[in-house]
Amino acid sequence: MGRNEKKYGTIGLMILTVIIIFSVVGIVIAGFRMIKKNEDARLISAADTEYNKDKEKRQEIEDHLESDGTQEANTETEAKGESEEAVSDSETDNKKEVFSADENENASSDEEADGETEDRIYLIPGDDKSSNRYEKAQHLSYTTTVKYTIQNLSVLDSYGLKITRNEIYARHGRIFNDQELQEYFQRQNWYVPQTASNDFDDSCLNEVEKYNIQLISTYEQQAGGN
What is the DSSP string of the chain? Predict the structure, then answer.
């Protein structure tokens, strides 16, 4: 009897140990599931927040496009006259002023870009003799403080829009996959290629630069759809 009792006692202890082990494993698994569930919920919440921010930003730009598009039809003749007048006034320095900061949002004269004060946007003429399509196109001057408007963009062709948009990246050392575009920026004395296109981080751009890129991209999409 003593042996049987000892045997049964050992078996009971083993069963109890197995039950405890399974209980602990179950608790650990449940804990991991809860952690994963909380992490998934956090990621979904963060994604929703980012999506809402992007949606609000896109809506702001679309509203801006719609508003400026309505005004553009009524002021097209006036805009052309201002552009022609700017050409004649700036022949000495090969630049023509087309829009002042009073016609742009959040204008500032505290910073400079490429030797020009940023309280004004300039239309930089292209070189008709060049074989590079980007060099032939006129484009807007680079700025970190003045937001472009639809009226600014309306005087540019597709190459001028692409130069104006990509110069913002080029000013931060981005390297471009488009060989002709890369050759264009290589000829600019301010350009210092540093970061491959796939490795470029937009976080180095300020809010005005990001706004201008988004505005031009949206304008390009709408122009392409017309």
Answer: -HHHHHHHHHHHHHHHHHHHHHHHHHHHHHHHHHHHHHHHHHHHHHHHHHHHHHHHHHHHHHHHHHHHHHHHHHHHHHHHHHHHHHHHHTTTTT-EEEEEGGGSSS---S-EETTEETTEEEEE---TT-SSHHHHS-EEPP-SS----HHHHTT--HHHHHHHHHHHHHTTTB--S-HHHHHHHHTSTT----B-GGG--GGGS-HHHHHHHHHHHHHHHHHHH-
Contact 109, 155 (CB under 8 A): no
From 58, 86, 64, 56, select the one nearest 151 (Cα to Cα): 64
User: Which residues contact residue 68 at a Cβ distance below 8 angstroms, ignoring those fewer than 6 apart?
Assistant: 149, 150, 151
Better pLDDT: 106 or 51: 51
Query: What does pTM read for this prediction?
Result: 0.53
Tell me the two tokens of residue 19. 């039950």
70 or 185, higher pLDDT: 185
Give just the sign of the alpha carbon dihedral 150, 152, 158, 160. Answer: negative
How confident is residue 72, by pLDDT bands cut at 50, 70 and 90? low
Please check the confidence at residue 138 and state whether its pLDDT lies above 60: yes
